[in-house]
């Protein structure tokens, strides 16, 4: 092992160390970095060899940081952040702010369109991510600069390298076949929805908001299948009168779809939209985009929350402004 003082650190190896230190699990860290577990282990081993110090103690079910690993962790995080900032600074004059969204069944682009309309000169480039972990990985890898969707609970504390902000609380509505037993109601409470069955084409673990709703109000749930997009989703609801689902109130349901859209009240569930970006991001467009989000929230009451009238999962209540 190299015990000398002059060490040329490999950023990919340092990033692998930080991810593993955050997770204390090689498999989870490898998945986060889109690596095989063997490739991740090799990067960490090469870093340990370069430093001349053992950074992890391997246990039966995971890993633990050694004393050297604990000392190295904070400087290593700063090194990764500094590298990301350096890359971003070099590219700022050459590219737009790269904005991505996820949670497509709830149509996040509606919110982006409303915000961008307030500042049409915003230089942004839009892309889609399949889910929250992919958006988080995109930020960490420098592939995107800003993302909008609903963040989920993590197995570890929120990463210091990424900033999260609640930007919108949107009421949801019940959507169901016109032939459904509840379809004639002018409004429905969560308690009344126990007479139906909430359906969504995704694993229960991936739809945290709907899972929390069914558990809080005792509503039967049916999760799973293949998410083929909004149109097949609506067609399935129209063909199955015993099912309903929840969508954001402003999501458009086409005329002639055979569906009813019914407000949910007493209380009204709110779907939380979060913005995430790299902590310390220096792109010149970011402050303007955040200001546009702030203006929209103030003028459209996007962050209004009254516990007497609304329901939010506990995880969202914890990050309300002033909480």
Structural write-up:
The protein is an alpha/beta fold. It is built from ten helices and twelve strands. Strands 3, 4, 5, 6, 7, 8, 9, 10, 11 and 12 form a ten-stranded mixed β-sheet that branches. A two-stranded antiparallel ribbon has the order 1-2. Helix 5 links the parallel strand 3 (97-101) and strand 4 (124-128). Helix 1 packs across helix 2 (26-32) and helix 1 crosses helix 3. It is globular, with a radius of gyration of 23 Å. The mean pLDDT is 90.
- Structural category is alpha/beta
Which spans of ≥5 residues are poorly predicted at pLDDT below 50?
Answer: none
Order of helices and strands: HHHEEHEHEHEEEHEHEEEHEH
Please count the beta strands (DSSP E, at least 2 residues each).
Answer: 12
Beta-strand percentage range:
15-25%
| Number of helices, counting only DSSP H or I runs of 4 residues or more | 10
Gross morphology is globular
Question: Average pLDDT across residues?
Answer: 90
As a whole number of angstroms, the C-alpha radius of gyration is 23 Å
Residue share in helix:
25-40%
Q: The biggest beta sheet, please?
A: 10 strands, mixed
Distance between the termini: 49 Å
Describe what is shown at a glance.
By secondary structure, the chain is of the alpha/beta class. 36% of the residues lie in helices and 21% in strands.
């Amino acid at each position: 092992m190299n015990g000398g003082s002059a060490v040329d650190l490999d950023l990919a190896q340092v990033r692998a160390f930080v991810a593993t230190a955050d997770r204390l699990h090689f498999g989870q860290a490898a998945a986060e970095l889109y690596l095989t577990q063997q490739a991740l282990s090799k990067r960490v081993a090469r870093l340990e060899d370069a430093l001349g110090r053992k950074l992890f103690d391997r246990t039966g079910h995971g890993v633990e940081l050694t004393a050297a690993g604990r000392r190295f962790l904070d400087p290593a995080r700063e090194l990764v952040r500094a590298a990301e900032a350096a890359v971003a600074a070099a590219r700022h004059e050459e590219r737009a702010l790269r904005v991505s969204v996820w949670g497509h069944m709830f149509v996040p682009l509606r919110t982006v369109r409303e915000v961008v309309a307030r500042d049409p000169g915003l230089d942004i480039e839009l892309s889609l991510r399949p889910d929250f972990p992919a958006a988080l990985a995109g930020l960490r890898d420098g592939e995107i600069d800003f993302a909008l969707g609903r963040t989920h609970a993590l197995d570890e504390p929120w990463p210091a390298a990424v900033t999260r902000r609640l930007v919108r609380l949107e009421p949801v509505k019940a959507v169901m076949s016109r032939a459904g037993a509840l379809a004639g109601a002018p409004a429905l409470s969560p308690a009344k929805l126990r007479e139906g069955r909430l359906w969504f084409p995704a694993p229960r673990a991936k739809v945290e908001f709907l899972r929390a709703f069914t558990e809080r109000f005792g509503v039967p749930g049916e999760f799973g299948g293949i998410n083929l997009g909004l149109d097949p989703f609506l067609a399935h609801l129209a063909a199955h009168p015993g099912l309903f689902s929840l969508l954001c109130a402003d999501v458009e349901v086409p005329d002639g779809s055979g569906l009813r859209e019914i407000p949910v009240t007493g209380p009204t569930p709110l779907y939380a939209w979060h913005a995430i970006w790299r902590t310390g991001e220096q792109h010149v467009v970011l402050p303007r985009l955040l200001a546009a989000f702030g203006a929209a929230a103030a003028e459209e009451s996007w962050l209004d929350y009254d516990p007497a009238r609304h329901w939010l999962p506990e995880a969202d209540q914890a990050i309300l402004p002033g909480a």
